[in-house]
Specification:
Helix content is 19%, strand content 36%. By secondary structure, it is an alpha+beta fold. A five-stranded mixed β-sheet has the order 1-2-3-6-5, with helices on one face. It has a two-stranded antiparallel sheet with strand order 4-7. β1 and β2 form a beta hairpin. The longest helix is centred in the N-terminal third of the chain and has 17 residues. The radius of gyration is 13 Å and the shape is globular. The two termini are 24 Å apart.
Amino acid sequence: MDEQDFWARLEFRICAEFQGFEDRHLRWYWCDGLVAEQYELLTAEPCIRGRAWCGPSGQEPWRFVLRIGRGARARAEIPWTALLPGEQATGWLSADPRRKTLLMSPLVGHPE
């Protein structure tokens, strides 16, 4: 899986995760796009930051942080396949509709 494919697949996984949230209000939210802007690979907590379009319409501008774990020292070394949460994984996405932010930690998600 390359980076472009990863972002498209992650968008669909976010939509599925919204549908499974305990908060019934968030179950109506969906994601209609992700744009990575900053690759912070050499920090204490490596991550990718960017913009997302989410909310009940899927069109509200949000911000996201994707925690990627250590190991990749360059963008070409990011393990895209390992970062995509499996279909049964839960607990990897936190959404704050008031602040319009998503925090994704796919390496700590757990099966249902």
